[in-house]
């Protein structure tokens, strides 16, 4: 019965997931924090998804406006500049303000919540440089 076999395979873990993460590899609390199934299933507040995607939605709106006003070349040029700025980064253990990205988005002259009360993921605590570089290069 092919349906019975398909339903059994749907509930099982695929071979690529096991081999990529390792069968006996544990959860890395230092990098990923504590796990909670509830947090992965539903957002804690209805506006959480909107707030997470705010910058993406704002960029899409700006690109659509640019396309309507100046033509297709303006959003394409701006997207190309965004990609170029994202590729240039500091070493992973050094804090980066992403000033070039703020200038492209026009956020360089505004003061927001994150400028005064920065979120904890952007803390000034420097990690161990060798371990962070090895993780970025995929050696760990």
Give the structural class.
mainly alpha
Mean pLDDT: 76
What integer value in Å does the Rg equal? 21 Å
The tally of helices reads: 10
Distance between the termini: 43 Å
Number of E strands: 0
Query: What share of residues is helical?
Result: 55-70%
What number of structural domains do the residues give?
Answer: 1
Low-confidence runs: 6-20
Largest sheet: none
Strand content: under 5%
Order of helices and strands: HHHHHHHHHH
Sum up the overall morphology in one term. Answer: globular
Structural key phrases:
single chain, 140 residues, mainly alpha, 10 helices, globular, POMP protein, chaperone, Ump1
Give your account of this protein's structure.
The structure is a single chain. By secondary structure, the chain is mainly α. The protein has one domain. The longest helix is centred in the middle third of the chain and has 17 residues. The termini are far apart. About 11% of the residues have low confidence.
């Amino acid at each position: 019965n092919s349906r019975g076999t398909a339903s059994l395979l749907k509930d099982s873990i695929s071979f690529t997931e096991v081999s990529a993460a390792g069968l006996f590899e544990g959860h890395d609390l230092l990098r990923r924090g504590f796990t909670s199934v509830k947090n992965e299933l539903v957002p804690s507040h209805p506006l959480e998804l909107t707030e997470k995607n705010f910058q993406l939605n704002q960029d899409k709106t700006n690109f659509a406006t640019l396309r309507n006003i100046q033509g297709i070349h303006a959003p394409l040029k701006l997207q190309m500049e965004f990609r170029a700025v994202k590729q240039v980064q500091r070493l992973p253990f050094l804090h980066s303000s992403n000033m070039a990205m703020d200038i492209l988005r026009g956020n360089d002259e505004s003061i927001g919540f994150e400028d005064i009360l920065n979120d904890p993921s952007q803390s000034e605590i420097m990690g161990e440089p060798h371990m962070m570089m090895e993780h970025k290069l995929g050696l760990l």
